[in-house]
Amino acid sequence: MATNKQAQIRYQTLDRCFSNHGRRYYIKDLIEECNQALFDQTGIVDGVKERQIRQDISDMESIWNIPICKPRDGRKTYYHYDDSRYSINNQPLNETELNQLKETIYMLNRFKGMPQFGWMEEILARFETTFKLRGGAANIVGFEQNPYLKGLNLFSDIFNAILNQQTLRIIYQKFGKESKEYLFHPYFLKQHNNRWFLFGFCDHLKEKRSVTSLALDRIEQITYANTPYIANNEIEFNEYFEDVIGVTVHEKDAERIILEVDNTLYPYVETKPLHGSQKKKARNEHTTTIELSLIINYELENLLLGYIDKIRIVTPDHLREKMLTRVKEAILRNS
């Protein structure tokens, strides 16, 4: 089975088509979708022929062992997965893929210990544990994750769209709202609290805000759009999130937040700071005072609620009042 970049683009495109039970994909449609994806992501104009797509379908059936239904519609045949939840991205790696992954991890291990690659330690441990690449069969590390989270099957396509500066047409459903279609220019992916969020520029919101965030688990469908991509030339996302906890960034300045932390809790707050701006200001027999510099958002409020019996918000007043209101509402709701 081919494993080059073009083949992977075709497999991912076919996978997305087979999962879409809202449309019938005939062989001609599959060829068009694959050629469009190849053009969008590589600039290749010539594309592929029917023989190649039929071979790709056969490869997907034999290698990933995913049942592909082929109902007849008159003289034509259309293709789809028996279960729309099927995806090649959800299947275990085959032997060839495992060997390639082992070689990649072996190469990356050479960078361990270098300061700029500190983040790699957890990634490599996660790979080795998940795929049992160290010889032993037993898992020895447990990582926090949500295997039932919706939208993870879209991660690869979105990642490639960002990499290749490809505009997306996204069908998105907010909680309690009807689904809507957005023309979206993707820039950045960020994980928070076991959820993934996509950040970018949304055409119909361009006069309201410069950056829009979409939760992957609320995205129902993505397709590549022919609309010219609007590149991100203004926002450095590491700086964009520097003054917040989580993913909600309000267009306002960071505020000075003073907290008195019970000394029974402080060792946990010291070893796992609430935020990188955390500074110790004072300590007495019962409490330790810390200072943070943050844009106040919903994620910060939720974090403080988790410690509410062990902290006192000294300043700002409006944050203290907001937290008191939420605590009172919680008491009333549960009384």
Count of DSSP H/I helices: 10
| Rg on CA atoms, Å | 24 Å
Instruction: Identify the overall geometry.
Output: elongated
Please report which band the strand proportion falls in: under 5%, 5-15%, 15-25%, 25-35%, 35-45% or over 45%: 15-25%
- In terms of structural class, how would the helical and strand content be classed? alpha+beta
* Average pLDDT over all residues: 85
Distance between the termini: 62 Å
Q: pLDDT below 50 for ≥5 consecutive residues: which ranges?
A: none
- Element string (H = helix, E = strand): HEHHEEEHHHEEEEEHEHEEHEH
- Strands of the biggest beta sheet: in what spatial order? 8-7-6-5-9
Q: Got a strand count?
A: 13
In helices, the fraction of residues equals 25-40%
Main sheet makeup: 5 strands, antiparallel
What is this entry, summarized?
The protein has 10 helices and 13 strands. The chain has helices spanning 5-19, 27-42, 50-63, 95-108, 120-130, 155-163, 237-240, 266-271, 298-305, 317-334, and strands at residues 25-26, 68-69, 72-73, 76-81, 168-172, 180-192, 195-202, 212-215, 219-224, 255-262, 279-283, 287-294, 311-315.
Write up this protein.
It is a single chain. The protein is of the alpha+beta class and 335 residues long. The protein has 10 helices and 13 strands. A hairpin with a 2-residue loop joins strand 6 and strand 7. The longest helix has 18 residues. The mean pLDDT is 85.
Keywords:
335 residues; elongated; 4-stranded antiparallel β-sheet; alpha+beta; 5-stranded antiparallel β-sheet; 13 strands
Outline the fold blueprint:
Blueprint: H1 5-19, E1 25-26, H2 27-42, H3 50-63, E2 68-69, E3 72-73, E4 76-81, H4 95-108, H5 120-130, H6 155-163, E5 168-172, E6 180-192, E7 195-202, E8 212-215, E9 219-224, H7 237-240, E10 255-262, H8 266-271, E11 279-283, E12 287-294, H9 298-305, E13 311-315, H10 317-334
Antiparallel strand pairs: 1-4, 2-4, 3-4, 5-6, 5-9, 6-7, 7-8, 10-12, 10-13, 11-12
